[in-house]
Amino acid sequence: MRTPIIAGNWKMNKTAEEAVAFVxxxxxxxxxxxxxxxxxxxxxxxxxxxxxxxxxxxxxxxAQNMHFAENGAYTGELAANMxxxxxxxxxxxxxxxxxxxxxxxxxVNKKAKAALAHGLTPIICxxxxxxxxxxxxxxxxxxxxxxxxxxxxxAEQVASLVIAYEPIWAIGTGKSASAAQAGSIIGxxxxxxxxxxxxxDTAQKVRIQYGGSANEKNxxxxxxxxxxxxxxxGGASLKASFVxxxxxxx
Length: 250
Ligand code: PGA
What we know:
Layout: E1 5-9, H1 16-31, E2 37-41, H2 47-53, E3 60-63, H3 80-83, E4 89-92, H4 95-100, H5 105-117, E5 121-126, H6 130-134, H7 138-150, H8 155-160, E6 162-165, H9 179-198, H10 200-205, E7 207-211, H11 219-223, E8 230-233, H12 242-248
Parallel strand pairs: 1-2, 1-8, 2-3, 3-4, 4-5, 5-6, 6-7, 7-8
This protein binds 2-phosphoglycolic acid.
């Protein structure tokens, strides 16, 4: 049985002070919800203070990005070992990073390897654009992203990580993919290629999230899909109703 996992991707929102006030507001409510992993992913600068505020809880902390190198001349970047004192998770290859910061499948693969080498659980994002969706290219594109992201990993590593399927046209648009549509793409284009690469046993262990305008009202429908194990939540993770969302996911 896969433990479901809901992660809040705060993106470039909340100062460190606002972040701490917010997690203090939601931590008790979130802690009462059992049988599901809960994660918040604040901006880098807020991570140490948020980790401190969540110390005595089971709520995980994730970063929104990292560099794949161990250290070096990469102005403005952070390495995995800078995150590990505070984080258990790291989002890798979010579509906004791929689109605005030229992240490639190859870079995503390197980051996944570096995160795993440092004991961080990667949340690897994949998903097609509206044009690709309309052209019927979803399955080929998404399964290609999955294969590239996981190339060279061991089955054990793959079993431990999280993948978020986020159709780009559904992110921040209020236009979510239908649960049946998301469930079927996740089964065919995410779990399917994992089974081909690493075996059915491994594919059954990987937790796969849906992402894209998930909220407290629609989350239960996604969770009812057998291949959907949680959600990566943007906008709806910034408000106290995030507790409701997690509650409605179990
Ligand atoms: P959204 O963002 O929930 O605001 O659509 C999801 C994401 O980008 O992870």
